[in-house]
Amino acid sequence: MILGFDFGMKYIGIATGNLVTKTATALTSIRATDGIPNWQEIADLIAHWQPSALVIGIPLNMDGSEQLLTKCAQKFANRMRQKFKLPIHLVDERLSTWEAKNQLLSRATKLREKDLLAINARAAAIIVEQWLLQQ
Description:
Layout: E1 2-6, E2 11-18, E3 23-33, E4 36-37, H1 39-49, E5 53-58, H2 68-84, E6 88-92, H3 96-105, H4 113-133
Parallel strand pairs: 1-5, 5-6
Antiparallel strand pairs: 1-2, 2-3, 3-4
Helix pairs in contact: 3-4
């Protein structure tokens, strides 16, 4: 079992990943303030799911170059490594949020507020799926 994270400055999406079936499931989104989450919420999720590793999406520009959010996500990944002492795998997350929105829109004519919160969790699942495909 792994946990995946779609880092954002306001919300961090979280998903689970199964190494045997190579599937991912959107779990939840937690609030962040300027990219800083409630670390206890993450600690509780890690204690509950007991992942063997963490997968964290790294946002890049379409040309592959870094942006300000790239540095923030890398800082988040470093803090996760320090706090939880688990292996960290970084994944290029380009277009994961766009794909998550499209998946949700395919099921509804318009997105409601609760759907907007689900986008981050679905994006985390897409990030986990990308990593699982490489394993």
